[in-house]
Amino acid sequence: MRKIPFDRAWIERTAAKWPTPFHVYDAEGIRDNARRLKAAFAWNEGFREYFAVKAAPNPHLMKLLRDEFGFGSDCSSLAELILARAVGNVGDSIMFTSNDTPEEEFRKAWELGAIVNLDDVTHWQCLLDAVGEDVDFAGRIMCCRYNPGPLKGGNAIIGKPEEAKYGMTREQIFECYGAMRKAGVTRFGLHTMVASNELDPEYIIDTARLLFELAGELHEKLGIEFEFVNIGGGIGIPYRPDQKPMDLGRVGDGIRRAHEELVVAKGMRPLKLYMECGRCITGPYGYLVSKVIHMKDTFRRYAGLDACMANLMRPALYGAYHEIVVPGKEDMPADTVYDVTGSLCENNDKFAIQRSLPKLDIGDWVVVCDAGAHGHAMGFNYNGKLRSAELLMSKDGSVKEIRRAETLDDYFATLDYPGL
Q1: For the segment 333-381, what is each residue's pLDDT rounded down to a tens digit?
Q2: Which CATH architecture has domain 8-23+284-412?
Q3: How is domain 27-279 classified at the CATH fold level?
Q4: Which member of 149, 251, 268, 373 has the greatest number of CB atoms within 10 A?
């Protein structure tokens, strides 16, 4: 059974103060992961990670990553921009990558000095409409998101690039950079994001090669000097027991060699390498802690938890696999098959389907692993379910509440109806 950084006694102590379900993050695990990422790309003097706020939009986690490792913020909405500002990330510490962007979000990103990464060729005019045609671009960095189409295969989560709503075609990329240069923009970056939860190192390396080559062509044809390429996030984590973690050293070395071949050897200015990882930073170090509150035996055996897909919707949304640990029963044989369910009025409200686990009893604690990214962040209130607390666990096992659990007062706060 998967090793977790706490035991049954820790859960019992913690749940006495913060009733289950709750999300807990292992601060030391996140730190170690951030160090590994930085070490893999230490060869690139300008390397920077922009933590994908959408993965875990909690300012306590964002501030830890900013203060201790210099990570910026990858933002895609107004709320995420405000969170970035709150932890001290402004200016080029923010990469604003959005789509179908409202004018107010362009204005806020511009106000904060963010690097604006345009998703569509028409968004150049949308930006000008939002901030003013006579805007001064002095010192501002502009970027475009490239969609390579069928040149680059996608994967199950993000889909095929040619079917994805994100990014510009090759022709549109040249058009947009030409228009920006004509308007007086002098500082440029280039971005793509063509996969999510990818575990093949060569896929990430090939993505960097693709951008290095395109940057070279844009430089040659438009005279643009690029400061950076942003290869996006996409680095996955081994959700399943038979999967291996991404070899970050191999990725870093492969991109270094590609940079030497496609940038340095061709006489271009060295490019800074940016990334916007979220999942691979916090994902393996977040856990959804819950309790078995019902057992049901019909056509299948069901273990009903006090958590539901409102706390973690990845299994229902993607059919995603998350390992499940039963603290206190780690040494028992996993000889009973269960569907592990929540209480929503939806039959796909299941954390596991036909999963072999130790024999479960009402009152057992259950820990759903790898819930530190796109877990609490994707919560919702269907069926009137309330979002759970988020906790941060230190190396010594002590706990800090970094988001309180929602209450019924929170749920009803936007309703204006007598008696509520």
Answers
A1: 999 999 999 999 999 999 999 999 999 999 999 999 999 999 999 999 9
A2: Beta Barrel (2.40)
A3: TIM Barrel (3.20.20)
A4: 373
